[in-house]
């Protein structure tokens, strides 16, 4: 069974069509990287998977169900700007949803939170507030927060684009480690080195369409669509 299935999915914002007849399946355990220029529909695409964006046409099934029937926590999301609660400590950020949504006891939630903070190498920061952390540390907290819900699918929306260059690698290292866990991952990113190393498949989007889908080595070395080739020439020359 596919983890995610897009069937003839389109999305409009007024007169602007953000997604155009998307046909795409993501296998269970697959790591799919989505690349393309700004405004190509990448973020809109993954935000439809957890219902943050509704679709105008077509259907999306997630883990064999329609989006509104997927149990809470099965789809996790890591945002570009962390979206941590500033008035809560790191530990409180991680335990909030497991207690409220999964009905874990406070102790169970704290034990789970510490497990995942250790997993992303940031357990010593548990009592701090987000403002006391670097961007890379905040993003690792955000990843740990998603993991506390024990999702089957993790969505990453440009998780390193708001970070300083020296902290990007620490977040990518965590994502590379997670890739070995068998979690289905959809990741919007410009980090082509990460895509090459970790992705099973890379799709290239432009103007709301999936123009190309291929294993990373094939897409990077011998893209079949001229627009993909143009994009990669620009991004890889920097």
Describe the structure.
The protein is of the alpha/beta class. The protein folds into two domains: 1-69 and 152-159 and 179-238, P-loop containing nucleotide triphosphate hydrolases (Rossmann fold), CATH 3.40.50; 75-150, no CATH class. 36% of the residues lie in helices and 26% in strands. The chain is built from eight helices and ten strands. Strands 6-7-8-3-9-10 form a six-stranded mixed β-sheet, with helices on both faces. Strand 4 and strand 5 (65-66) form a beta hairpin. Helix 2 (90-100) packs parallel to helix 4. The protein is globular. The N and C termini lie far apart (39 Å). The model has no long low-confidence stretch (mean pLDDT 94). InterPro entries: AAA+_ATPase, ABC_ATPase_HisP-typ, ABC_transporter-like_ATP-bd, ABC_transporter-like_CS, MetN_ABC_transporter-like, P-loop_NTPase. Belongs to the ABC transporter superfamily. One of its GO terms (cellular component) is plasma membrane. Its main location: membrane. It is a peripheral membrane protein.
